[in-house]
Specification:
CATH architecture of the largest domain in chain A: Up-down Bundle
Mean pLDDT of chain A: 97
Radius of gyration of chain A: 17 Å
Shape of chain A: globular
Largest interface: A-B, 31 and 31 residues
Number of domains of chain A: 2
Largest sheet of chain A: 4 strands, mixed
Number of helices of chain A: 7
Structural class of chain A: alpha+beta
CATH topology of the largest domain in chain A: Glutathione S-transferase Yfyf (Class Pi), Chain A, domain 2
Distance between the termini of chain A: 19 Å
CATH class of the largest domain in chain A: Mainly Alpha
Oligomer: homodimer
């Protein structure tokens, strides 16, 4: 088994934090995104969509998509349960995981890719107006998340889950996208400090 | 239990096709998207993100996000298994489900929302350049999917799964986005006819 990693990029980091929470070690092969290693012929043969991470199983099967890789490890190593417990709890974790992806990580990524000078050759064409359109949506969702986190410790309930991993990484991704959590959102800040203080956050 | 539905809109339809494949009937309450029913105060109290569908459980819990709702029913009614079987198969289903969402359903939705005159009051501001940027990406992904479907019957393997539901609805959504599957993509067309001929496709 081998994990194709992409350093500090948000998606590979989701998988590494997840593995750290599970206490799982997997052999890693670095794909150098700065040198466009994910667009090489060798890596395109692994993932035709040219994205990291990817997991190669011992039988040669390739699993891409961060959450698909995380779910694979959840099945092999169920504890601690990071995708929820019973049907209701698992549905709430999946709901929050997806809300964070569609209303925070995704939009922040769009802002970064469509406005940051470093992304000019990666995102062709850059559409600055799309970055502009997403900024207020991100700020609105941060407000919603703050109100939710005023009522409980973690994003999907009283237990730490994969939704907290995606949420932490999405909030960390605000900085390269040149955004920040407003000071007034105290519950969101409290939660972000909490999850960032876990040893897994260094992964 | 009650499902807040939105008629023929793609996301509510994903859940209804899924339920039809499972043979599950759930009481339905229509939310009239044409009359902006999803933006009403009553519905905003159910889903602050103002999206359909939403599932209300008997204890009052609200589950939003189509796939979270589908996973909830998969746990209650495991057969037929639409999210895969063992760890490897489930990971491949999740991988394809997400590839279809991020590279087809999502981009087609962005094209529709940012270019269709009917969406002018729903998507503010419309960014036509973002629609333009996504058209070639959608066509490229359709080509990739066609090559994959030349090797097997369904998107994630030899069994029909939730990835086929999302895929069928994404392809159906090309039309309102003023796109079409090129004639040359024979395997994709064969698969689309196959999945569209299932009784569940009428849901």
């Amino acid at each position: 088994m081998k994990l194709f990693d992409g350093g500090r990029a948000p998606n590979p980091r989701r998988v590494k934090v997840f593995l750290a929470e599970k206490g799982i070690t997997v052999p890693i092969e670095q794909v150098d995104l700065g040198k466009l290693g994910h667009k090489s012929a060798a890596y395109t043969a692994i993932n035709p969509l040219q994205r990291v991470p990817a997991l190669e199983l011992n039988d040669g099967t390739i699993i891409t998509e961060s959450i698909a890789i995380c779910r694979y490890f959840e099945r092999l190593h169920p504890e601690p349960q990071l995708f929820g417990t019973d049907a209701r709890d698992a549905a709430l974790v999946e709901m929050w995981e997806r809300r964070i992806e569609f209303h925070l990580l995704g939009p922040v990524s769009h802002i970064f890719r469509n406005s940051h000078p470093a992304m000019k050759e990666m995102e062709v064409p850059q559409v600055p107006a799309w970055a502009d359109a997403n900024r207020p949506r991100v700020m609105e969702f941060l407000g919603l998340l703050d109100r939710e986190l005023a009522t409980r410790r973690y994003i999907a309930g009283e237990r730490y889950t994969v939704a907290d991993i995606t949420g932490m990484i999405a909030v960390d991704f605000l900085k390269p996208a040149k955004l920040a959590v407003p000071e007034a959102l105290g519950s969101l800040k409290r939660w972000h400090e909490d999850v960032s203080s876990r040893p897994s956050a260094k992964a």
